[in-house]
Amino acid sequence: MPMREDPLPALEVRNVSLSFKGVKAISDLTFQVERQEICALIGPNGAGKSSLLNILNGVYVPDSGEIVFEGEHFRRMHPLEAARRGIGRGFQNNALFSGMSVLDNVIAGLSRHSRATLVEEAFRLPRARGEERRFRERAHEVLRLFDLERHAATLVGTLPYGVQKKVEIARAIAAEPRLLLLDEPLAGMNAAEKQEIAAVIARLNTELKLTIVLIEHDIGIVLKLAHHVVVLDYGRKLADGPPEAIRDDPDVIAAYLGSEHAEIAA
Ligand SMILES: Nc1ncnc2c1ncn2[C@@H]1O[C@H](COP(=O)(O)OP(=O)(O)OP(=O)(O)O)[C@@H](O)[C@H]1O
């Protein structure tokens, strides 16, 4: 019998609000992300995009509202628990260990999932040894997927920025998340690097069937890469829909793209 499509969205953000000492970062935000969708969060600086990602992976707890991930409701969730549930995260500023090799950085992403205790690891007891071997194999598998195998032993800090960014995404992927959160994955890159990382993201989405929520300022890339765009402005949702509709939305053009940038959206 053919498998029935799961009707649940991957992620629902329901009436979420968050403030910092009286400053409203997010106000009553509601939207949903379908499975295997690339959803781009866009909006001016301070719109609340990073705060939202921090809620989604348990770094911040919203003042009100809830998150539903694959049908499970939560408001308060530790980042480790988010990772174990299948929510992976890449950061705005490179969060890699620059003095460690590419391979060890990817393994570090996996060790958050370790079942071995510190004592087992310290004494290299069988469970820790078995895990280390599995992590190493998995890390090599991921490096092959990202065409990074030849850099496995290279210290991350010596690699060009675009390659480092690939390593960071590889590290987030190693733990096999089903939802990947990326905070400005293309920031600080030249045009060629942007194209390459955008292609990597598109491949992760189609080949690994990953749902991806990303923050991106380059509207040209967003329109090409995303299936769904949510526009935030002062913590509120200004628009939510497919890229073509967002591109033509007069409120978005006025508030975010700015009338002087309207030709970008044309
Ligand atoms: N840890 C914090 N403490 C206090 N205020 C914060 C904190 N994090 C964010 N804010 C405030 O919350 C609001 C939303 O910030 P946030 O970083 O989420 O916006 P953003 O859309 O990601 O901006 P950017 O594009 O500049 O990264 C801003 O007013 C910001 O100053």
Automatic annotation (TrEMBL):
Signal sequence, start to end: none
Keyword Nucleotide-binding among record annotations: yes
CDD domains given in the database record: ABC_Mj1267_LivG_branched
SUPFAM superfamilies reported for this sequence: P-loop containing nucleoside triphosphate hydrolases (SSF52540)
Keyword Magnesium in record: no
Superkingdom of origin organism: Bacteria
Domain ABC transporter: 11-259
GO MF, one annotated term: ATP binding
Keywords: ATP-binding, Nucleotide-binding, Transport
Pfam families (UniProt xref): ABC_tran (PF00005), BCA_ABC_TP_C (PF12399)
PANTHER family (alphabetical): ABC TRANSPORTER ATP-BINDING PROTEIN (PTHR45772:SF1), CONSERVED COMPONENT OF ABC TRANSPORTER FOR NATURAL AMINO ACIDS-RELATED (PTHR45772)
Official protein name in the record: ABC transporter ATP-binding protein
Lineage, uppermost ranks: Bacteria, Pseudomonadati, Pseudomonadota, Alphaproteobacteria, Hyphomicrobiales
